[in-house]
């Protein structure tokens, strides 16, 4: 399983900070959803979702990310 970040509007996957790609095989694998969320918080990345890609089984699970109410007020 790969843990990827995907831009909601474009469908592109994060390869590196500021670099987005169409091919999920080229994207950064965060290994855990916690690491992916921490990366988003540290780099102030919004408008993304976590995609859990199961390549052998040929399916994926999409987890939307939303800011906590306290973070929305501070932004």
Q: What portion of the residues fall into strands of 2 or more residues?
A: 25-35%
Number of domains: 1
Spatial arrangement of strands, main beta sheet: 1-4-5
Low-confidence runs (pLDDT<50, min 5 residues)?
none
Number of helices: 2
Work out the radius of gyration. 12 Å
Main sheet makeup: 3 strands, antiparallel
Instruction: Give the CA-based shape.
Output: globular
Helix percent band: 10-25%
Mean pLDDT, to the nearest integer, reads 91
Give the SSE order as H and E letters: EEEHEEH
- Separation of the first and last Cα atoms: 33 Å
Q: Please identify the structural class as seen in this structure.
A: alpha+beta
Q: What is the total tally of β strands?
A: 5
Quick gist of this model?
The protein is of the alpha+beta class and 75 residues long. It is built from two helices and five strands; from the N terminus they run βββαββα. 23% of the residues lie in helices and 35% in strands.
Task: Chart the SSEs and their pairings.
Layout: E1 2-7, E2 13-16, E3 19-21, H1 33-43, E4 48-54, E5 59-64, H2 69-74
Antiparallel strand pairs: 1-4, 2-3, 4-5
Description:
It is a single chain. The chain has one domain. The protein has two helices and five strands. It has helices spanning 33-43, 69-74, and strands at residues 2-7, 13-16, 19-21, 48-54, 59-64. It has a three-stranded antiparallel β-sheet, covered by helices on one side. The protein has a two-stranded antiparallel ribbon with strand order 2-3. The chain is globular, with a radius of gyration of 12 Å.
């Amino acid at each position: 399983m790969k843990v990827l970040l995907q831009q909601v509007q474009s469908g592109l996957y994060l390869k590196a900070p500021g670099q987005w790609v169409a091919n999920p095989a080229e994207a950064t694998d965060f290994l855990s959803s916690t690491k992916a969320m921490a990366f988003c918080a540290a780099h102030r990345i919004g408008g993304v979702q976590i995609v859990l890609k199961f390549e052998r089984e040929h399916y994926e699970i999409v987890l939307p990310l939303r800011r906590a109410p306290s973070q929305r007020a501070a932004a």
